[in-house]
Structures are given as C-alpha cells and as structure tokens.
C-alpha cells in the first residue's frame, strides 16, 4: 500500500487510513519524483542500526529536521547527499540516485557542513568558489573570473587573493554558502548552520538563508532555528518521532527535551 503523511497531525499515518476529503494535507501516494524521496531507508554500521525505516518525501520549500545529539540527523543528511548509501531502501533526489549521479547532483543538491573547515579545500576564496564550477565542466580561468566577480558583487573584493585561513569562522561559513550557491543547486542541505557562531554572524547568515529561493533542509538540535519552516520532522533514535507543522512539532520536541533535561540521566544518545 502506498504511504502518505498527514501534516496536520504529529503522527505519520498510512495514506489508506485517511482520505483527502478528511485531510487536505496528505501528501501520498509517492508518485511525484521531485524533491528528496526516502523509501524504507535504513542505515546500519557493523550491524548497529543508526537510521531505521525512514519513508519521507521532502518537497516543501523550508524543511526542518530536529533531534537531539546522536539521533541520526547528520547521517540522514549524508544519505540525502549521496555521501553514503543506505543499507536498505532507496534515496532519490529529483528521481536520481545521489550516490551514483555525483555530477548531476552538483546542480541539484548543495551541502553546507556544520564545520566550514571540513568543507574548504583551497587556500584562497576565489579558488574555493571556482571549484564547483570547474567540476561542472567550466574552464579554470572562466570559473576563477566568475568567482572573483561574485566576491566583488558581494562587497568582498578585498578577499581576492587573501588566505582563507585569515577569515573568521563566520566568514568561512559564508564562503562555504557562496561556494554552494555558485552551482545554483535547487536544494541546499544545512547541518547545524548557526551552531557555534556569535549572535551577529548568526543573524547575518539567517538573513542570507531567508533570502534564498532554493529549497532548504535545515538540520538542527535547536527548535527555534526551524520555527518558520513549512514542515518539521523530529528524529529520535534514527526514526521519525513526529512530522508536521513547525509550531506543533517544535513545541512537542522542546517539551520532551525539557523533560529529559530535568532528569539527572545524560540525555545524549550518541554513546
Ligand atoms: N560511521 C559511523 N560509525 C559508527 N557509528 C556512527 C557512524 N556514523 C554515525 N554513527 C553513530 O550514529 C548515531 C547518530 O549519529 P549522527 O547522525 O551524527 O547524529 P546527530 O547528527 O543527530 O548528532 C551516533 O550514535 C553516532 O555515533
Ligand atoms: Mg550532527
């Protein structure tokens, strides 16, 4: 039976158990290939399940994925980006297998990692910005010209030729966002995009994200960061605990985190 999701309820429900007349928000059956599709996806390492039985069709413009440390958020992002393949089930992005169609993914899916230093490969900002374009087939000189033009257009002309190492953490994060945007992907995956940044940098980056026309999938442990999302999914121990409107899911998540925090036990799942 095809499955669907009722976004007006916290619970995930089989499409067959609720009709469109009863609930206009049911998204299944999953025949639409656009967006990110996970069908019965599980991921295990050495037999230890990390993600179990995830079926999701992510097509909204702003999607939040919340969960405490160790719930499987970053693993889910790596699966969606094709950096790892599922142990079971299938992941597709616009109908393509992201682990196999690496080149085609460049214009479809961008990733902003939590730590810019895990992402930056080159010593200068313009080389960093040009890299994706070169991978997409543009000649090196043309790619560098476009990268420099982008830096000038963004009011960062003085960064041309500078050492990336001299930029602040927030500036390196911004550079990573720009290098993703150079490839004009339809969807950007953001892993804890504001964690560890000072407040003005958080505000600046949040404004930059808000202005983007792309689909954004934001992974975070902070419910406030996804309060304005069209849809929020709560991951708990590698499974979907709730999936629905931001207000309801973030409130339920915050309540549960406060309840866990009130206990003495370590609430971190990652061990
Ligand atoms: N390659 C791996 N080998 C072993 N354990 C892993 C691996 N990747 C993730 N895990 C474990 O899976 C769980 C989920 O990790 P992760 O996806 O990073 O969670 P989150 O991003 O929500 O904090 C953690 O317990 C983590 O230690
Ligand atoms: Mg993580």
Question: How would you characterize this protein structure?
Answer:
This protein is of the alpha/beta class and 271 residues long. The chain has a single domain, classed as P-loop containing nucleotide triphosphate hydrolases (Rossmann fold, 3-Layer(aba) Sandwich), CATH 3.40.50.300. The protein has helices at residues 73-80, 102-105, 125-135, 140-153, 169-181, 199-210, 246-261; strands spanning 36-45, 48-58, 62-66, 88-93, 109-112, 187-191, 215-220, 231-236, 239-244. Helix 3 packs across helix 4 (140-153) and helix 3 packs parallel to helix 5 (169-181). Bound molecules: adenosine-5'-diphosphate and magnesium ion (MG). Magnesium ion (MG) binds next to helix 1. Residues 73-74 line the site of magnesium ion.
Secondary-structure map:
Elements: E1 36-45, E2 48-58, E3 62-66, H1 73-80, E4 88-93, H2 102-105, E5 109-112, H3 125-135, H4 140-153, H5 169-181, E6 187-191, H6 199-210, E7 215-220, E8 231-236, E9 239-244, H7 246-261
Parallel strand pairs: 3-7, 3-8, 5-6, 6-7
Antiparallel strand pairs: 1-2, 1-4, 8-9
Residues 73-74 line the site of magnesium ion.
């Amino acid at each position: 039976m095809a499955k669907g999701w009722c976004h007006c309820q916290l619970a995930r429900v089989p499409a067959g158990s609720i009709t469109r007349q009863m609930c206009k928000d049911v998204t299944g059956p999953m025949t639409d290939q656009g967006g990110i599709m996970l069908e019965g996806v599980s991921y295990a390492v050495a037999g230890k399940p990390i993600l179990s039985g995830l079926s999701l069709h992510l097509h909204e413009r702003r999607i939040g994925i919340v969960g405490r440390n160790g719930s499987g958020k970053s693993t889910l992002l790596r699966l969606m980006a094709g950096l790892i393949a599922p142990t079971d089930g299938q992941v597709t992005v616009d109908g393509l297998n992201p682990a196999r169609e690496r080149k085609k993914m460049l214009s479809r899916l961008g990733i902003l990692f939590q730590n810019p230093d895990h992402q930056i490969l080159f010593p200068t900002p313009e080389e960093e910005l040009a890299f994706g374009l070169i991978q997409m087939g543009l000649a090196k000189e043309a790619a560098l010209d476009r990268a420099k033009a982008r830096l000038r257009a963004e009011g960062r002309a003085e960064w041309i030729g500078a050492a990336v190492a001299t930029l602040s953490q927030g500036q390196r994060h911004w550079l990573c966002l720009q290098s993703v945007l150079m490839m004009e992907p339809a969807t950007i995956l953001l892993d804890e995009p504001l964690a560890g940044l000072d407040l003005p940098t958080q505000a600046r980056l949040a404004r930059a994200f808000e202005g983007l026309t792309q689909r954004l999938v934001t992974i975070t442990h902070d419910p406030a960061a996804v309060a304005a999302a069209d849809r929020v999914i709560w991951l708990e121990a590698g499974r979907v605990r709730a999936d629905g409107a931001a207000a309801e899911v973030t409130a339920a998540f915050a309540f549960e985190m406060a309840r866990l925090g009130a206990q003495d036990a370590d609430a971190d799942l990652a061990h």
